[in-house]
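Morning F.,

Quick status update on the modeling queue. The single chain you submitted on Monday has been processed. Sequence for confirmation:
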Amino acid sequence: MARQSFDLSVYLVTNAEMVPEGIDFVTQVERAIEGGVTIVQLREKNLETREFIERARQVHKLTKKAGIPLIINDRVDVALAIDCEGVHVGQDDMPVPLVRKLIGPDKIIGVSTGYVDEVKQAALDEADYIGIGAVFATQTKKLKKIPFGTEGIRRLLGALKESNALHMKTCVIGGINGSNIQRVNLLGRIEGKKVDGFAVVSCIMANNDAKTATLALKQKIDTLPSWATPKSTRLSGDEIDASIGEKTPMVHHITNDVVKNFSANVTLAVGGSPIMSECREEFGEFASIPNSALVLNTGTLTDAKMDIYIAAIEAYNKVGTPIVYDPVGAGASEFRRHAVRQLLNSGYFSVIKGNEGEISAVAGLTKQMKGVDNVGSSSIDDIVEMAKKVAYDNKCVVVVTGVADVVAGCVFSGEDEPDLEYKIIQGGHPMMGQITGTGCSLGSAIAVSVAANPESPFYATVRAVEKYKEAGKVAGTLASGTKGPGTFVTSFLDALATRGQ
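Structure tokens below.
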């Protein structure tokens, strides 16, 4: 088998300890191969050499029959003994050049990587593929480093690009299973490079029906999840408003206590129906309501609430219902920055909305914040580029609020590379910054618009932001001078209710 022609798409890493009682190890591997495994790595840490060789021979017989490679983890001697197709080594194992010297020019060599310098070294060593991980937490083995999610995948693919090694094959490993493999497939990529395969362990080895489990994984790899169906329909503002009027979308809020009342009133004013709930038993039911959306606002963040947020994300992603994520104060502390990374790794968001500092935190950049407020300001061109980057990385719509709001969208069009576009929206009034909740409640207005127009999230978001800015300008003009913020609130809700009618 040529070193260049192997298929990493469904990469089975064996673990004999996980095989269900009553099923023979070799039989479990055979069933997985019947289901469509494209490459097998035999990983045995507890067998003596003679036993390892015997097991490797048994598995190699199966892989040769199926025409797929057998890779031996770490043990070059075992690979040589059975003349299999290759070896996979970790960072603490034999260096790649020495492995190549021992096994010859025709065998496959893979190497585990978790840091940029390790990827660059693998490229210099001319490994045939790299394993990227750990992506998520796993029970297969004790991890030495914190799982880095899809953001880490993109970072390491970027290291390949910097090394002029985009030809090198890649697979991801660490907690990959049926619940996240589609998200990893779509979000774990950069321009010009996506992962070639998915290394899985427990979801096949621990399954009572390894063949069916493998078939299910292959089906997920080859199809789009419900939240990633093409959504690039161009709708006019009038069409978007008409859809809201016809559907009266339900918006489920998981938001901070300070803004609940105002967010509910904004939702009603723009034509939606608000509900507030942090009861996870309701999440699946709410997510299944037609023309609905979730606003996830993490302003009052605690460890206990993280479990609630993740449960909601999973429920809404399961049925493809839009989520508007507002990472309030995301850059204000390390705790909040870590929470942002954890939530981004937990699911897909249709829209991510925040000020410059908050979106900088999502982008992995350092931007000083004071509480939930921005400190300092970048040029509008820099903000546009940041918004486009976050939109591309997360394949979603991004709103960066400020004196001028930037809306960037990178949504699925049915093509391999999603469409990327942006719009700068002027307007509003300085008094909007003097009222608690005007920033957070923009998420409610966006959620109503996107819930009614899920096939066009970018244009629905643009329309919502435009109407919000217009209402702020009208209300601010009425309230400025002899009147004040109380008049502004009333006038703002009135103006929102008449926009688009």
